[in-house]
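Researcher: Let's run the pair from yesterday's discussion. Sequence first, then tokens, for each.
Model: Starting with the first of the pair.
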Amino acid sequence: MSGTLAKVGIHTVMDLLKHYPRRHLDFQNRLKICDLEEDQEVSIFGTIQSVSAFQSKKRSVSVMTVLIADGTGSVGITRFVGGKSNKYLLERYKQQFPKGAQVMASGVVERDRFSKRFQLKNAEVEVLGLLSDQAEDSRTSLHAGRLVPVYPLTEGLSLRHLRTVIHNALEKYDRGLKDPLPDFVLSQLNLMRFKDALRTIHFPDDIVTKDEARRRLVFDELFGIQLQLAHRRYKFDQTETALEMECKSDGLVAKLKESLPFTLTGAQERVFREISRDLSSAKPMHRLVQGDVGSGKTVVALMAFLVAIENGFQGAMMAPTEILAEQHYRQFQRLLTPLGLRCALVLGKQGVKQRREIHQEILSGQVHIAVGTHALIEDKVEFNNLGLIIIDEQHRFGVKQRARLKAKSQSPELLTMTATPIPRTLAMTMHGDLDVSEIDELPPGRKPIKTSLLRPSQKREMWDFVLKEVETGRQVYIVFPLIDESESLSAKAATAEFEKLVKKFPKLKFGLMHGKLKPKEKDEVMEQFRDGEYHVLVSTTVIEVGVDVPNSTIMIIENADRFGLAQLHQLRGRVGRGSDQSYCFLVSDSKSQSTRERLEILTLTNDGFVVAEKDLEIRGPGEFMGFKQSGLPDLVLADLVQDAKILEDARNTAIAIVKEDPELENYPGLKKLIAQKVSMTEAEVMRSG
């Protein structure tokens, strides 16, 4: 049996007690049989009138029926059993359900297809014996007549047995369950005690107390995470030193602003002020900047670099792809040159001689900002005085890669950025040890991208529109999804579609981009598209991040239902980079109403933060981030959409406690909450049953 429990992740008593119900059947509604209605979840008291069994036509299944009456009517309870003879089945059930015995039965009311009489579906039956009517109502059961827990199961494990095992464990270990939360937290937030919450989540008296138990246990889940993050932040502040860079009011940042052909948005100014405060603080910076596609993160990053430069430091920006690194480099170079500053590009594809020259210029301090890919973390890349590191699309890099770049200086400040909006609750859960800034405002003059959801039958009208746009000099992306997680299969699919389109539209010039191309080939294709040599670029999702071609105004996404909303929004963000009206066509042949409603969200909003919130709500955190995403904690009960208020309370409480007592010396229970599970042997688990 211990092996059976292990299949559902139960190895200790605490695992058992935290094997929470998926839901509860509401069998509190006690009715007379004459008052039953279809689809009700009910409990009835009655007397067994008869037990019968017969063999189904398929012969492999025997059907047993118990008829129960209460003086106002009768109702049947049917069970299907495979591989048993009628005689054996009947004798067994007559012993289990003796005629004349009083029972409590709970289930969902339905009508029998043939007799049209009521029967109880998925019924739980408790034999009460020969009891008086008064005694019947006081009789309690784990399986009927109450809110009955329904658990995740595995083969060989029945609901009735698991309920009994969990109930016995609660009875046996109840007194040994110490509450990890201090009394003042319970009082302040009006939380149920831990042992009461555990008992109630399994066997609640009513809906209200069940919800209160869930609130307490969700708080514990989220508070444990937030306490770890707050403690990690404290440790980081203690061990890391800060460079304390001051931003001069008449310095390089002011000169950059004067040279810009546009005015910064209020959001850009606000986020830069937050970064400036971090840089001037005696505590090290740990900030994540989120900004929707086209919100102007690059300029904010450059302003942060200028603060470092005028304080005598160099800067380094690491991007996940060569395309994105080159894009940042070009923009930096264009804006830095008038200020008399130098930027260098560090890529793995560069030749030995070119790399040697760039490395020397960085080491000598001639280069103020080095922009590159993973090539920046190579041992040969050394800095004269590295003071600020900015990592773009930070989730694409591992902890070790970030650490290797930081090791190139004694104590550089670190700023991370992402163009993939993360909903606030998810950011607090994954990045609770970071300060999160949001550039939640697009530059003026940007026109919202007009997004349409199409069926394949509507593509003819779409192509008529595309051809007209191309005639005016505009360019087009066509993107295909990843097939079965295989870039090879995706490349073949994109190539096949590319060849079809070349034949169908001979007057158009098509480019092809996919992950199987060599880096040099990708760069050539992208450069040719940027220079206008192709009207249409057919691609897999390799263009999701960092491609900036202002002249491209149409994005066509095939099989759009195979993408998450956040990824679709990222792809859509490849157009709308200039002042012209841009368009996105989502093509899907899915007949699922829920799928089409999900895709319709993109036709209603261009706000990446709204899209991300909806995507999290629909798919949940695991699928939203990707199952391989590191850093996403396991959540059993908590829902990051539904439980936002509880998360806020957990975060504020954790921060306050760590601020008052960083090492948790006065809170031994909280130390255990961070690092330890109550551990008991499988034998003890089994003995509890």
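Model: Moving on to the second of the pair.
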Amino acid sequence: MAPDNRPRSREKKIAEGSGSVKRRGSGLDSKPIQSTGGGGHQSGRVTRGGGISLGTIILIVVVYFLFFRGSSDSDYDHSQPANQGANTQTSSQTFGDGQSAAGSSQDLMGGMGGMSDLFGSLIGGYATSPGDYSSYESAPAQENTAQLDMNVSPLARQKYTSIIGQGADVVTIMVYLCGTDLESRSGMGTADLQEMASATLSDNVNLIVYTGGCKRWKNDVVSSNVNQIFQIKQGGVKMLEKDMGKASMSDPNTLTTFIKYCATNYPANRNELILWDHGSGSLSGYAYDEKYPQTGSMNLSGIKKAISDSGVKFDFVGFDACLMATVETALMLSDYADYMIASEETEPGVGWYYTNWLTKLSADTSMPTPEIGKNIVDDFVDMCAKKCPGQKATLSVTDLAEASATVPEKLSSFSKKTSDMIADVNGYMKVSDARNKTKEFAISSKIDQIDFIHFTELLDTPESHELKDVLSSCVKYNRTERSIANANGLSVYFPYKKASKAGTMARTYEQIGMDSAYADCIKAFASNEASGQSTPDGEGSPIELLLSTLLTGRGPGDEGTLQITDNGKGQKVFKLSEDEWSKVATVDLGVFVDDGEGFIDLGLDNTFTFDDDGNLIADFDGTWMSIDGHIVAYYHTDTKDDGTHYSFDGYVPALLNGERVELLLTFTDEFPDGIISGARYVYENDETDTVAKNTVALSAGDTLDFVCRYYDYNGNYKDSYKFGEPLVLDSPDVEIRNIKIADGESIATYKFTDMYQQEQWSPVINR
């Protein structure tokens, strides 16, 4: 049997008779798309060898009516009871329907400049159309439901918030709702305003919402021209400030203005702050204002400045945004808040569900903060399980008073010990191996954010175990979607995929006042990783090595470790020593089609088999992944298997009703045949570093055009193409399986990625 340190594989699902699957279009029919200012087109017709034709295509701008009406400025909205559902009325001006949106042609794969980008994936988004949540009821507890921990370390400072008790507390909830493309594309801000309006709020709860950051609101209440302030009250939306100017919502001064406004006009003994928008964790921070993309995101030092300048202390700060449950965020906030509620992973499009927990808090405004957090977490995870099964839902409650007292000292000791290990070759390999095996978040975005508790456990030093204990104690409640393993509530930045960002992160640590020992640690690791990223014999780039593999059938290891040999059992295998396998981080099967003029890239999949001696069997059966009988380009991104639950994740580039997306595919013990958990919109031209919570679910009637990358024999990225005929969905349920590649010469090769993130390609295994 293969030793435990071998990379994990996904078993291919190949149906009987798969070689004769009925498909629209012949073979691998590809159509090129080029980027132009007003809808791309490719003139002329080119016929390539191998039966693969690249025909003329005009990418039609798809105009479709969305669920809600366009925005208009409103003056004052008298509160009145709201009807639940998609067309909830909050006043004489409604959250209505009728607005249209248009898409335009862009480079489908984000302007790939060469084969070095072949394995990258773009920062994409998460969106879902708002739906009727009026019938929502809490689902039964998932099997990984955490226990609420009400204990607090005796070392922790006193909480900033003093709870009066007996329901006498006054609560002001400040929602900083930067609508951005989450609202303009899918009405997600409108949906959450509806959820808030559906809550039963007492006179002791002030729910105040600041709006902006969006080019087009999908309701008749919120202005798209200026920032505004509203109060949610008695089932409706009351205009408080019609015109707060046009400042960017990613500007810390804008957030400071809002907090001060609430503290002055709605004083309370319990203040809560919810930051609603995109998030990208410790590296890039929070918020993307689509009206002012040039202002970038509000990094951690910006958030710190905004809250510090306001002079307000908070009961909790919550992020209805992706990836903000980090140790860095927690330590930064600890001077200003008692608790943090945030997600380690990218949030599914539905985001927080507001109705239930707001109603419960109104019924008892003296509710302990960890219980408020538990209600928020449970509603979020249960709603995600109901509305978007298979998507990666995580949410946790962290005690910041405890974190500020217990984490810094243990973090410093951990960092110094780990830096010492990195300085030694064997120690570096141990750290790298632990980093490689640690639960990672937003993998396709390569932000290098990992579960800190899992990392300390795998590193297995006295210092790491001490840090693990204090981190675990600070997390008072944590839940995840059932297939997620080793997401324990707090993540951390640790360089691996993009080691070049370590210096930027170190500067952020200095700005937010974190101990320098951890900054020194990550810089040391990044430096060692960079020093190990050299190609065999110092010759040839990974691009050239892959090109050589595809053209000649020879791999970079033909004279070294990656030779194909016979195992004496009639099988061709790759033999590596135990020491060599210990340095391999991942193995993926890459498949290309040679059409006579270049290569069509079908992606990377973690499908492979070891023989009984632990050798990788060099075999390819000529099949590849398909969706409803359409072969697709698929890119495996992550494998997690804790022995009880497993999850294999990847994406398929496509156009969904004319807009660029990545279809997110997940194979788990719950969905072994695989499901499309959502379609993630892809940003153009790196317009934001934040990661969007805008995954849209597929619906009957949707049109999917699958997309592939094409490279010439010189290794140059030529274009992205529509791949085969469009697929019009009869239902959102699709069949995922491997089928025979019909036309052209398929070429298979394995990509080995080592602990230094260096990529090597094996010889072709089926030439």
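Researcher: Give me one sentence on the second I can quote.
Model: Confidence is low (pLDDT under 50) at residues 13-144, 533-541.
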